[in-house]
Design a protein that fits this description.
Blueprint (H helix, E strand, L loop, with lengths): L4 E10 L5 H17 L4 E3 L18 H10 L1 H15 L2 E11 L2 E9 L5 E5 L5 H5 L11 E4 L2 E5 L8 H9 L4 E6 L4 H18 L2 E9 L15 E3 L11 E4 L6 E7 L1 H10 L4 H12 L8
Parallel strand pairs: 1-2, 1-9, 2-3, 7-8, 8-9
Antiparallel strand pairs: 1-12, 3-4, 4-5, 6-7, 9-10, 10-11
Length: about 290
C-alpha cells in the first residue's frame, strides 16, 4: 500500500450525447486526467451513465428508458476495464442499472488496475427509484480488500444510514466511497452532511462524487446539484474543517487529495476521541434502553 493514496472525485457534467463514443470520449478524458495527476483512485458519481438515455427517445416512459440503459452496461464495463488497465488506476465507475429478469437494481463497480472488478448494489432505494423507475434494493454490503486498503461503497442514499459505514469500518475499511446523484440542494446536503458524519464517527475518509449539469426532459436528472469532496475525520492529523478538498458547486471539475491511511489507524487507536472504539459501549447501552414516564 502506498504511504499516500491520491484520490480524485468527479463533479461529472451530464450532457446530451449523440453517440456512445461521445460518452466514451468524455470518460476517457477524465480518466487520463486523473492518471496525469498520479491518482491511485478515481471516483465517478451515481447514475453518470444517464447521459446514454439521450441516445434514445426521452419521451418514452422512464422505466423503459432505464431498462434500455441497463442494456448499455456491458459496454460501460468493457470501457472501464480497458481504462483501468491502460492507466494502471483504480476506478469506482459510479453506478449502472442492472436488469436481472424483471428486477432492476442500481449497481456500483470498482475496478482495480488489472481490470478486475467487484460490485456493490444500492441497499436503500429512494422513493423516486422505487415508485417511478420500479427499482429494487440490492445487497449485501461488501468491503473490498484492495492494494489501497479496505474500501467500502455507500451509494448516495445509502450513506444516510450510519449502520452500513459502521459495519464497514469495523471490518477494517478506511476509505468509504459515496457516489451520488442529486437534483436539488436539499438532496445534495442530505448526502453531504451524512457523508461527513460517517467520516467523523467512523474515523475514515469519505470520497463523495456528484453529478452536475442537466438532461432536459429526462425525469429525475433534468437538473443536478452537486459538489464533490474528500472528507476526513475531525482531529489534529487531518484537515482543519474535516474537508481535504472540495469543488465549486455545479461546475464540471475534479477534486484531488492525498489520503494518509496511517493517520486513520493512529486516530482510531490514540485520537482525541475514539468514536469507532467507543461505539461498542453505546451499542451495549442501547440494548438496555429504558422508557421512563414523567
Amino acid at each position: 500500500m502506498p504511504d499516500k493514496i491520491r484520490v480524485a472525485a468527479l463533479q461529472y457534467f451530464i450532457r446530451p450525447v449523440r453517440h456512445f463514443d461521445d460518452f466514451a470520449d468524455q470518460v476517457r478524458g477524465l480518466v487520463a486526467t486523473a492518471a496525469d495527476y498520479k491518482a491511485h483512485l478515481l471516483v465517478f458519481p451515481e447514475y453518470f451513465t444517464v447521459q446514454l438515455l439521450t441516445l434514445g427517445d426521452v419521451r418514452r416512459p422512464i422505466r423503459d428508458q432505464i431498462v434500455d440503459l441497463a442494456g448499455q452496461g456491458p459496454r460501460v464495463v468493457e470501457l472501464m476495464q480497458g481504462l483501468a488497465r491502460e492507466h494502471g488506476i483504480h476506478i469506482q465507475a459510479g453506478t449502472i442499472p442492472v436488469l436481472d429478469g424483471q428486477q432492476l437494481t442500481n449497481v456500483a463497480y470498482l475496478f482495480n488496475p488489472s481490470g478486475e472488478f467487484g460490485t456493490q448494489g444500492k441497499i436503500h432505494i429512494t422513493r423516486w427509484e422505487r415508485e417511478e423507475w420500479k427499482m429494487s434494493a440490492a445487497g449485501p454490503l461488501r468491503v473490498f480488500d484492495t492494494a489501497l486498503g479496505k474500501v467500502a461503497i455507500t451509494i448516495c442514499y445509502d450513506v444516510e444510514f450510519p449502520e452500513l459505514a459502521r459495519v464497514a469500518a469495523r471490518a477494517g475499511a478506511t476509505i468509504l466511497l459515496a457516489p451520488s446523484c442529486t437534483d436539488d440542494r436539499q438532496g445534495f446536503l442530505r448526502v453531504r452532511y451524512c457523508a461527513h458524519a460517517r467520516a467523523i464517527e467512523n474515523q475514515m475518509y469519505v470520497v463523495h462524487a456528484s453529478t452536475v449539469g442537466s438532461l432536459p426532459m429526462v425525469p429525475a436528472v433534468a437538473l443536478n446539484w452537486g459538489q464533490a469532496a474528500i472528507l476526513t475525520p475531525s482531529d489534529f492529523p487531518f484537515s482543519r474543517d474535516g474537508i481535504l478538498a472540495e469543488g465549486s458547486p455545479n461546475q464540471e471539475s475534479m477534486v484531488i487529495g492525498d489520503l494518509n491511511v496511517a493517520a486513520i489507524w493512529q486516530a482510531r487507536e490514540a485520537g482525541t476521541v475514539l468514536p469507532l472504539h467507543d461505539s461498542e459501549q453505546s451499542a451495549d447501552v442501547a440494548f438496555r434502553l429504558e422508557t421512563v414516564s414523567l
